[in-house]
Amino acid sequence: MFYSSGEEKEKAVKDSLEMLKTLEEHALGKKKFFCGDKISLVDIACGWIAQWLEVLEEVAGVKLIEPREFPRLHKWIENFKDEPIIKENLPGHDEMLVYFKPLAGKAPSCAFTTKVLNGSCSMLLMLTSCLFWMLLYDSRHG
Predict the structure, then answer these.
(1) pLDDT tens digit string along 58-67?
(2) What does pTM read for this prediction?
(3) Which residues form the GST C-terminal domain (predicted)?
(4) Which of 34, 48, 52, 83 could lock 42 by a disulfide, CB 3.0 to 4.6 Å apart?
């Protein structure tokens, strides 16, 4: 999505929305955080969604996380960013924008990275897979 255009970008957006829907409906549910009322390893692993995705959306000119489409995920982002330890350590939006804007539309040199960032092997798909493994681990190891 970040490095693609046209039909390729549309497919990447569609794939990303499907993965976000999976997070919204199956992983997050009605909990404040992925594993309950406290931040867990799963929230940390998904933390990039809270800040990085917003910047990437802006640079790519695409909005993925609309509050009416993903109310629970949107609320999770607010809760996550509101935690003191996260607030103190999250990079600033403008700071990240300065870094990513010049990279927009420029394909990375690594073919695998290009494939991942263009959506055919979506980052969100990999994240979702990782998330479910972490949820399974968390449920078994408290």
Answers:
(1) 888 888 889 9
(2) 0.69
(3) 1-100
(4) 34
